[in-house]
């Protein structure tokens, strides 16, 4: 079973994403705080990470850069999930994310992107 790590400080978003991806047969793990990311990755070794842009006192781009610069996690696909209207390329270039999903997200788009990266 493929594992997805959802990193979002909004409990409602985490719940919705978990329900959607559970129904698709994924094992979903969640963290609400960017400071918990390394521990969650060590424990679950996810196949895909869904990363919210705003995580309280942390900038997702810093978390993403850290993941992509570490040999142990560089190969894990990171999909940025954002409600901001910022340019998608800025986020992808800034942290080398693999993809981007806008909030509010389309359920079919979420499933399609997670399925694509989980299968890689």
Average pLDDT level? 86
Report on the biggest sheet. 5 strands, parallel
Rounded to the nearest angstrom, the distance between the terminal CA atoms is 14 Å
- CATH superfamily name? Response regulator
Strand order of the largest sheet: 2-1-3-6-7
From the 3D coordinates, which CATH architecture would you assign? 3-Layer(aba) Sandwich
Instruction: Give the low-confidence spans.
Output: none
The CATH topology, please?
A: Rossmann fold
Radius of gyration: 13 Å
Highest CATH level, the class = Alpha Beta
Plain-language structure description:
The protein has 5 helices and 7 strands. The protein has 120 residues and is α/β, with parallel strands linked by helices. It is globular. The chain has helices spanning 11-23, 37-44, 60-69, 88-95, 107-119, and strands at residues 3-7, 27-31, 48-52, 54-55, 58-59, 78-82, 99-102. The two termini are 14 Å apart. A 5-stranded parallel sheet has the order 2-1-3-6-7, sandwiched between helices. A two-stranded antiparallel sheet has the order 4-5. It has one domain: Response regulator (Rossmann fold, 3-Layer(aba) Sandwich).
């Amino acid at each position: 079973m493929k594992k997805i790590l959802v990193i979002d400080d909004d409990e409602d978003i985490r719940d919705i994403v978990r329900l959607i991806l559970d129904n698709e047969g994924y094992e979903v793990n969640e963290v609400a705080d960017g400071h918990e990311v390394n521990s969650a990755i060590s424990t679950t070794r996810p196949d895909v990470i869904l990363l919210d842009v705003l995580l309280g006192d942390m900038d997702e781009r810093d978390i993403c850069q850290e993941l992509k610069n570490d040999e142990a996690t560089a190969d894990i696909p990171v999909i940025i999930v954002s409600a901001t209207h910022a340019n998608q390329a800025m986020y992808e270039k800034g942290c080398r994310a693999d993809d981007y999903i806008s909030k509010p997200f389309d359920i079919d788009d979420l499933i399609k992107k997670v399925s694509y990266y989980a299968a890689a």
